[in-house]
Design a protein that fits this description.
The structure holds 2 protein chains of 2 kinds. Chain A contains 3 helices and 2 strands; from the N terminus they run ααββα. Chain A is mainly alpha-helical. Chain B has 2 domains: about 160 residues, Tetracycline Repressor, domain 2 (Orthogonal Bundle); about 140 residues, Four Helix Bundle (Hemerythrin (Met), subunit A) (Up-down Bundle), CATH 1.20.120. Chain B is built from 15 helices and no strands. The chains are: A mainly alpha, B mainly alpha.
Chain lengths: ~100, ~325
């Protein structure tokens, strides 16, 4: 033991050593906590997947959402006009057919 | 805390007990009834996975409220024999852990409900946790003999939350289901408190038998049961319940009323009450659980199995 350590000999108590039973209880609790956290992550993932798979994320539906029956809800953000919400001019909405050239 | 108590290490079972699993079962069951009835009445489809997650969120919310209740009531739970073996008073789970678990689970349950359904169902779930954990546990329980009556609102929310999770709104039918549980709670709980009023008195909890005596409690049990029986038939009038629901609820209501009359005529809860009188109060308590279970089961069967035949053929 160095001189420096000898100076503090007896000043500190031994580190706490948990009993076997306490260690087992801790391990079990940690396992359940880990499983609960993993379960939460999976649930959020599943919800996100279901929500996204029932949404219309195409350009034509950029500012629109779809209700439970698959019908478009035309709720625009406050202050936005339908013109502003329309898709950019170079994009064709997927659910609207552009008239062919020469057609009236 | 004694040395023997510090030697007890919490198991997963202790944490499950913290969530009050028996209450949770009834909460989940009534929530599922609200959810299925909403689908049956409105025809709004719901993704079954989302419905399962919404139900799980309600179960977690119920558990969270139970953990907060056990955290706050640890002092009086320690005094009463019936509750002294609960995880917190027995020393298995530290108080702070119970509170932390309750708060974290509250947040998780509300978030899950919002993700899986809509903000209204999430807000109702959050409010019902607050109602049980704060309004009932921290305020009403120790301050008024009406604690069970007003506090009963917390346990009445699940079918409304289930309904809101499907439709995004709460029509009259949902609030009728709320009212059934609300008026069921006092006779259910007061039947138990007739048996355990000595314990509540020891712990200083102002339950009705402690503050007004057993006779007043038996009167109130009869009064609330008289109100409950016709109220439980209201879904038949609105079309929510059909023939099966109506007949089951009427028969169960008459038996429930029979119990209430017999308890009213007995001396259950009095100092000199006979063993038969006390047994009667106990039987009424257990029948009340069966009553609520079967009433909501009838509703589920009608709407889930396509057996909903409205009275009047509407």
């Amino acid at each position: 033991m160095s001189d420096e350590k000898e100076k503090y000999a007896g000043e500190f108590t031994d580190a706490y050593t948990p009993e076997e039973a306490e260690l087992r209880a801790r391990k079990s609790r940690n396992l359940w906590l880990g499983l609960a956290l993993a379960g939460f992550v999976i649930l959020v993932g599943v919800v996100t997947f279901i929500r996204l798979s029932s949404s219309d994320l195409s350009q034509s539906g950029f500012y629109y959402s779809v209700d439970d029956k698959g019908e478009r809800i035309n709720d625009l953000p406050e202050g936005m006009t339908p013109d502003q919400a329309a898709p950019p001019p170079n994009l064709t909405p997927i659910d609207e057919t552009r008239p062919e050239e020469g057609e009236p | 805390m004694s040395a023997s108590q510090t030697k007890r290490y919490a198991t997963a079972g202790d944490y499950v007990q913290l969530l009050k699993p028996r209450i949770m079962m009834l909460v989940v069951f009534t929530a599922i009834a609200g959810l299925i009835a909403a689908v049956g009445v409105t025809g709004v489809p719901i993704n079954p996975v989302m419905a399962a997650i919404a139900t799980l969120a309600i179960a977690l919310g119920s558990g969270a409220a139970g953990a907060i209740n056990m955290w706050y009531d640890a002092d009086i739970d320690q005094i009463m024999t019936r509750t002294s073996t609960r995880p917190v008073p027995s020393g298995a789970v530290p108080k702070e852990e119970a509170l932390a678990m309750g708060l974290i689970m509250s947040g998780v349950s509300v978030l899950l409900m919002w993700l899986a359904s809509n903000w209204l169902a999430a807000a109702l779930l959050a409010f019902s946790i607050f109602y049980y954990g704060v309004i009932y546990t921290m305020w009403l329980k120790r301050s008024t003999p009406q604690n069970i009556v007003i506090g009963g609102g917390a346990g009445a929310f699940p079918p409304v939350i289930g309904w809101a999770a499907v439709t995004g709104n709460t029509p009259v039918d949902a609030w009728i289901l709320f009212a059934i549980i609300f008026f069921w709670t006092p006779p259910h709980f007061w039947a138990l408190s007739l048996l355990a009023h000595g314990e509540y008195e020891k712990a200083g909890v102002p339950m009705l038998p402690v503050t007004h005596g057993a006779k007043a409690t038996r009167n109130q049990i009869l009064l609330y049961t008289i109100l409950l029986v016709p109220l439980a038939l209201l879904p038949v009038a609105t079309g929510l319940g059909g023939w099966i629901y109506g007949l089951v609820t009427l028969a169960l209501g008459l038996v429930f009323l029979g119990y209430a009359v017999r308890v009213w005529r007995s001396r259950a809860g009095d100092a000199g009450a006979s063993a038969a009188d006390m047994k009667l109060a106990r039987s009424m308590f257990f029948f009340s659980i069966l009553y609520l279970f079967l009433v909501f089961a009838a509703l589920i069967v009608e709407h889930a199995a396509g057996l909903h035949f409205p009275v009047g053929g509407a």
